[in-house]
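Checklist before submission:
- one chain only
- standard amino acids only
- sequence pasted in full

Submission:
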Amino acid sequence: MKAILAASYGSGSAAALEKSVVPLENAFAEAYPGYTVRRAFTGQRIRARMNVSGITADSPAEALERLAAEGFDEVVVQPSHVTAGTEYERLCAEAAAFEGRFAKLRIGVPLLYDRTDIAEVCRFLYGKFRREGWLTVLVGHGSEHGSEWIYDGFREVCREAGYRDLFAAALEGSPDLDDLLPVLRASGCRNITLVPLLFTAGVHAVRDISGNIPESRKSRLEAEGFTVDAVVRGLGEYKEIRRLYVSHIAAALAE
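Returned file contents:
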């Protein structure tokens, strides 16, 4: 028996899960009809909150243990993480403990794993949100883990492709909004579309990016005199992005 374990960070918002996690799992099932699709959540604290609210939230280890006990012999673990940060490393470590429990165990890579991935996502988001007289700013979670190279990659890809009005910044780590502000001011454009570079439109998208609190990215840009249109939609809600995750399963199976 074969299974795909869809591993997401998790969200305290049931609506965000329905809009991002469920469609991704459906995309996996459609692409691989011979596989059973199961789910796991990597965020330790968010799992506790989800279980309290009545949402079943297995850890990757718990989900893999169930699959092993049920007799599955081939498993592909595909994360919905955007970058290969701490959560992805923890997922890989948990999965590695099950080597030998399955005849075949593969782990797919996150959405933005290499320069090719970045170029694909840039091309899609640029085409989706570009409008005359507006800048588009993608806002990711960021990490102290060292995934800042992702944002460097965005700058390089955008420059080479001629996407002069597409930018990326992080909520945590570098580059943050303060790093980006001089470039935005120098552009001469006063209109900005904020787009979450996050898999689900959870608390970060609703509060930290588009919220009305003073420290949100929307409020800070408005305080700088920009007109801001904030999108509250996770990457998992776009079929084009889901196709990229499916392609990472194909790559994992080909190893």
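Reviewer check: The mean pLDDT is 92.
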